[in-house]
């Protein structure tokens, strides 16, 4: 069911949530986290849809914060909060509250979000579009254990990547990194089989692809070799080559979901490596809510000051 | 709860800090590390030499546990289990990216098929039964590694063909000689198949690779036959390379018993004779024996279910904290509990068996057991069994464990109910607590996996009245779609060589030692009681608990 509230407050929204739950007859639900999505009206629909799909794996309360811009200067000084409360079938497996802020309250969205967080449960903030310069210092970001940004959604991804390196705080993560998991796990599995020292490496991808850059940096940090960045027509990452003394390990995905794996001295085989939907990326993100140390290492690339992992 | 399981090549060779601590703790506790029973879990053999994969790191939690290069050979690939469970599980694993590139699946059966026909059968099975959506690219990756060997189990040429297929796959798919042989065949064929594997040198692992055998229940029908079967299999495969599938142990909730007990502080202090009144473990089915008359008659519910599933659930519920979450420590603790089990002196009063009788069940008219096709009118096979067991140790002395199982009961349900004692003193008068039962923690194994806590609460209103309420934790609610099928987990564990969730032969033998005296008593005393199909078992079972001043839960 859906309850619309205009010119409202957090406590009225809380009441509406309880009322909604009572009405559909489930007074207690096992929600495991609160997800805060900060977005604009244009991208809200897709983001909510992805979050609701992910909520099948991680039942959550989703709070969507949308800043609205009033048309006239007079309205702009007026502060107002509108809310749309969705529970039951309209909200995946959890609850969704869409918060629209006007005027001054837009700068204090955290004051609305804080009372609506689930007790004790972890908080995740996701900026599907532009994220703040320093996510962990943002008032909403500071409420969260985990802050999800997306380098694919920004204008200058590589510049932004540098900014993320500078502003990194434990709990930060980026969907460009999440997109790499299948690649990384296949590369690790390939190296398990090849069992050889890597002496050279190359990442082939379309120009300005932040995931490719992260992948290259991760390889540099782990393999201690220089990684060549080769620009291809794309889409996204098209191939990774690891040179060893015995020959080359290649995962090649020119297009589509099928990749080819070549190992030295072995015939090549097919691999499924598809580009995943946002909801799957979010679901993976929510599986672990502690700091992603490997992301930090990848951000810093070779510059990582490594404490030996094998204590 | 799988965090402490060694996951990657690198961890394998080097070992995480926790691993080492756990091992040290184990040694300190004097856990025997030598001999067949106490050896640590077999480790993935690709970690055999000193190569440490720099792309793996314990801190990198996104990278899943991917099995090393390997292949799976299924005997009896045309069977129901294979089509409904194994093949879909293999596909689901591939779809989740958990199988190694080059993973190969070899089918062996008496069918005149080519590789493509086999692929088609797998394709149909996957389409129909897989849990995850069908994706063409995943299918293509799998299909390239599918082979089919037609033949009988005594057909030498077929095994020669199998051997060359395995060698061909090593060369063309890089399976590195690592194979698991899944014996999805009736136990009477086990000796034949393992002997053939031995004869054709398929069971011999080359240095740095592994060969494993996977077998399904029944593991014999009494202690002697179980020992005999184990001897046959162990003659060919190292005991540590034999994986006995008990699919209940692959279920999330069952693994969660250990997490619940040993990762929390609030349950373990009351998990003993000072607070627990008794424990009920139930596995009920609503179906009859169907077409399995040949298998079921003469075996019965106790051998079919209590010996393996229920005693395993009981062992997990009652065992002490293992020194570490690894196969050897788990085995040690489970064996301790199973060895401490004591049977009631008067088996006639504390065990019950029954047979379902014709009746209306859930809106359909069903036949009684003795009227089922292929069943002897005079059959005394039990389709219902209930037994009372005591565990003679400090934690459980005096707390009875009631185990029951049956076919054609009210509904399909498996659960473990730990029922607590009443509060020693109640400040409320008796009318206020009239409707209050005992507190209970119920672990719902299937369906609707989860946990229920039952306690008393005040009924809203002006008078003081206390009534039972329940609090539910449902897996379906909190971790919805990530809950994999039991077979997925178990097949992956076989390929990884992780034996935590597989009962070892010692456990099988201990379980038979518990059940054999009961079966012998039943064979010589009386006949099974008849119970109405669709009910919760014979009246005798209710009397059995009533004698102890207790009653069965309605699950």
TrEMBL record, chain A:
InterPro entries named in the record: G6PDH_assembly_OpcA, OpcA_G6PD_C, OpcA_G6PD_N
Domain Glucose-6-phosphate dehydrogenase assembly protein OpcA C-terminal: 170-299
Domain named Glucose-6-phosphate dehydrogenase assembly protein OpcA N-terminal: residues: 51-164
The organism's place on the tree of life at top rank: Bacteria
NCBIfam families in the record: OpcA
Protein name: Glucose-6-phosphate dehydrogenase assembly protein OpcA
Gene: opcA
TrEMBL record, chain B:
Alphabetical list of Pfam families matching this protein: G6PD_C (PF02781), G6PD_N (PF00479)
SUPFAM superfamilies the record matches: Glyceraldehyde-3-phosphate dehydrogenase-like, C-terminal domain, NAD(P)-binding Rossmann-fold domains
Catalytic activity from the UniProt record: D-glucose 6-phosphate + NADP(+) = 6-phospho-D-glucono-1,5-lactone + NADPH + H(+)
Binding positions (NADP(+)): 110, 152-153, 217
Enzyme Commission (EC) number: 1.1.1.49
Record-level GO BP terms: glucose metabolic process; pentose-phosphate shunt, oxidative branch
Skewed-composition ranges (Basic and acidic residues): 15-24
Record field: compositional bias (Polar residues): 1-14
Residues covered by region (Disordered): 1-64
Keyword Oxidoreductase tagged: yes
Keyword NADP applies: yes
Residues at the active site: 309 (proton acceptor)
GO cellular component, one term: cytosol
NCBIfam families: PRK12853.1-3, zwf
Family of this protein: Belongs to the glucose-6-phosphate dehydrogenase family.
Record's protein name: Glucose-6-phosphate 1-dehydrogenase
Gene transcribed to yield this protein: zwf
């Amino acid at each position: 069911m859906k309850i619309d509230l205009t010119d409202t407050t957090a406590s009225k929204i809380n009441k509406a949530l309880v009322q909604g739950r009572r009405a559909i007859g489930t007074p207690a639900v096992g929600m495991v986290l609160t997800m805060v999505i900060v977005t604009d009206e244009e991208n809200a629909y897709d983001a909510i849809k992805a979050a609701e799909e992910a909520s099948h794996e991680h039942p959550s309360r989703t709070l969507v914060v949308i800043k609205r811009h009033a048309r006239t200067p007079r309205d702009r000084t007026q502060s107002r909060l509108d809310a749309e409360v969705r529970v039951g079938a309209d909200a995946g497996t959890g609850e969704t509250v869409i918060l629209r802020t006007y005027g001054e309250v837009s700068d204090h969205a955290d004051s609305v979000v804080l009372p609506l967080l689930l007790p004790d449960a972890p908080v995740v903030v996701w900026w599907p579009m532009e994220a703040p310069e320093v996510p962990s210092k943002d008032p909403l970001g500071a409420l969260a254990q985990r802050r999800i940004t997306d380098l694919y959604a920004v204008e200058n991804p590589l510049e932004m990547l540098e900014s993320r390196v500078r502003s990194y705080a434990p709990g930060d993560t980026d969907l460009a990194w999440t997109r790499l998991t299948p690649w990384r796990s296949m590369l690790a599995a390939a190296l398990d089989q090849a069992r050889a020292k890597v002496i050279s490496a190359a990442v082939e991808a379309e120009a300005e692809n932040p995931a490719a850059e992260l992948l290259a940096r991760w390889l540099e940090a782990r393999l201690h070799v220089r990684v060549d960045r080769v620009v291809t027509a794309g889409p996204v990452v098209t191939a990774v080559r690891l040179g060893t003394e015995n020959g080359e390990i290649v995962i090649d995905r020119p297009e589509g979901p099928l990749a080819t794996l070549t190992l030295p001295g072995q015939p090549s085989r097919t691999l499924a490596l598809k580009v995943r939907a946002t909801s799957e990326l979010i679901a993976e993100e929510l599986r672990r809510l502690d700091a992603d140390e490997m992301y930090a290492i990848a951000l810093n690339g070779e510059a990582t000051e490594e404490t030996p992992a094998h204590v | 709860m799988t965090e402490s399981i060694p996951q990657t090549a690198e961890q394998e060779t080097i070992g995480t800090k926790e691993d080492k601590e756990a091992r040290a703790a184990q040694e300190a506790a004097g856990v025997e590390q030598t001999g067949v029973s106490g050896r640590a879990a077999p480790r993935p053999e690709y970690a055999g030499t000193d190569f440490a994969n720099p792309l793996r790191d314990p801190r990198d939690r996104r990278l899943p546990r991917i099995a090393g290069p390997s292949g799976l050979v299924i005997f009896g690939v045309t069977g129901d289990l294979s089509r409904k469970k194994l093949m879909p599980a293999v596909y689901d694993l591939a779809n989740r990216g958990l199988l190694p590139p080059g993973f190969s699946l070899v089918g062996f059966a008496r069918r005149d098929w080519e590789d493509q026909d086999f692929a088609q059968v797998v394709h149909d099975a996957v389409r129909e039964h897989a849990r995850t959506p069908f994706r063409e690219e995943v299918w293509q990756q799998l299909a390239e590694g599918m082979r089919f060997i037609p033949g009988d189990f005594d057909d030498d040429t077929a095994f020669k063909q199998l051997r060359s297929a395995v060698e061909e796959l090593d060369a063309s798919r890089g399976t590195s000689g690592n194979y698991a042989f899944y014996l999805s065949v009736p136990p009477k064929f086990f000796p034949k198949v393992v002997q053939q594997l031995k004869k054709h040198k398929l069971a011999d692992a080359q240095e740095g690779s592994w060969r494993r055998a996977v077998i399904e229940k029944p593991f014999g029908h009494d202690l002697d036959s179980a020992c005999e079967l184990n001897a046959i299999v162990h003659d060919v495969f190292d005991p540590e390379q034999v994986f006995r599938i008990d699919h209940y142990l692959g279920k999330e909730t069952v693994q969660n018993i250990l997490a619940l007990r040993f990762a929390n502080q609030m349950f373990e202090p009351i998990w003993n004779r000072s607070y627990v009144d008794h424990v009920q473990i139930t596995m009920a089915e609503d179906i009859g024996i169907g077409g399995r008359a040949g298998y079921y008659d003469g075996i019965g519910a106790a051998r079919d279910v209590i010996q393996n599933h229920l005693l395993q659930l009981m062992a997990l519920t009652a065992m002490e904290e293992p020194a570490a979450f690894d196969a050897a420590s788990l085995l040690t603790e489970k064996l301790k509990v199973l060895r401490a089990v004591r049977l009631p002196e008067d088996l006639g009063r504390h065990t019950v068996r029954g047979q379902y009788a014709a009746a209306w069940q859930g809106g359909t008219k069903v036949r009684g057991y003795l009227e089922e096709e292929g069943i002897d009118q005079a059959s005394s096979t039990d389709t219902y069994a209930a037994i009372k067991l005591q565990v003679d140790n400090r934690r459980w002395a005096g707390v009875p464990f009631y185990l029951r199982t049956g076919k054609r009961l009210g509904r399909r349900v498996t659960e473990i109910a730990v029922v607590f004692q009443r509060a020693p003193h109640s400040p409320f008068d008796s009318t206020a607590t009239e409707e209050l039962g005992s507190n209970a923690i119920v672990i719902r194994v299937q369906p609707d996996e989860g946990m229920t806590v039952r306690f008393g609460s005040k009924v809203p209103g002006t008078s003081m009245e206390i009534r039972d309420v329940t609090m539910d934790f449902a897996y379906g609610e909190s971790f919805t779609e990530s809950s994999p099928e039991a077979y997925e987990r178990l097949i992956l564990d076989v390929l990884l060589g992780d034996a935590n969730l597989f009962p070892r032969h010692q456990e099988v033998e201990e379980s038979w030692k518990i059940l054999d005296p009961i079966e012998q008593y039943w064979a010589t005393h009386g006949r099974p009681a008849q119970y109405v199909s669709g009910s919760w078992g014979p009246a005798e079972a209710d009397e059995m608990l009533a004698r102890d001043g207790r009653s069965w839960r309605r699950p």
